[in-house]
Amino acid sequence: MKIYSAIQPTGAIHLGNYAGAIMNWVKMQDEGECIYSIANYHSLTANKDPHTLPQRTFEAALDLLACGLDPQKCTLYVQSHIPEVTELTWILSCCAPIGELNRMTQFKDKSARMEVVNAGLFTYPILMASDILLFKAEVVPVGEDQLQHLEVARVFARRFNALFGETFPEPQSRLTKATRVMALNDPTKKMSKSVEGSAIMLSDPDNVIKKHVKRAVTDCGATPDGQMSPGVANMFTLLSVFSTPETVAHFQEQYQAGTLRYGELKEALSNDLVAAIAPIRERRAELAQKPDYVKEVLIESARKLRVTAKATLAEVREKTGLGVTPEA
Ligand code: TRP
Question: Is the minimum distance from the CB of 131 to ligand 1 under 6 angstroms?
């Protein structure tokens, strides 16, 4: 089974990214051939700072390796190291009705907040489909927000196959178990590193992690009868990911009985979070001392994947009638 996923290099990764996606990436390394990408072409649709992009890309690689992506078990690469994906994007874009792209909720949301909307933001799902199809991936672990884009990739695969002959497998989504980690200081919003007090970063020292948990909002005023308040629900979400089932059951029972003390729950949670994050932080610090090693991992991946990418493109060029590329 060929597995593919990608993350944009927006800088250091927080607990929400880790629990929502990366933990799953790590697990899937044992389920099939995994290809993971740092989607820097995609990130140009938003942040266009050439001074920070290399650093953001490097930091993403550090985080992912520190979280447990193992270069022996998966292939982690930088999207722009395989420029063939942009050629496939062009070809697929010619088979993509704009009406389909116009329906994308992410595009509607993002473009509504922008003064000037760049075409890349509009064709973003085509690039994403090309990422997946270039390597003929079969399974794509994504969060809920990317499901619609993945549906587009499936449509593209079907359409290309119908027009030019069987070429691409239809990629299946694998919805990450809905671990939506909310902001600690405002549990009605998603955890975000750009909001002060919202996120725990994987580079945070133990005392900072503990302080964040201690201050986490649990009581949000009145909630409808029998419904857990969002802050408490968020604590239970984190508990379900980072603590043992026994611990979760223990606090659930107390909650049901109305005897739960938030201080105790937070104490247990912060100990388990520290236990999970400390080794990641330490590995991250070690890797940061070996930038050449990290870069070599990425380059080695690109060398390997480019062979596949070129083979797919050769097939696509032949099937579409574009023909072979003469050697330079
Ligand atoms: N668009 C995805 C995101 O922002 C990242 C991404 C790019 C991706 N290419 C992909 C995800 C291919 C899955 C498959 O989260």
Answer: yes
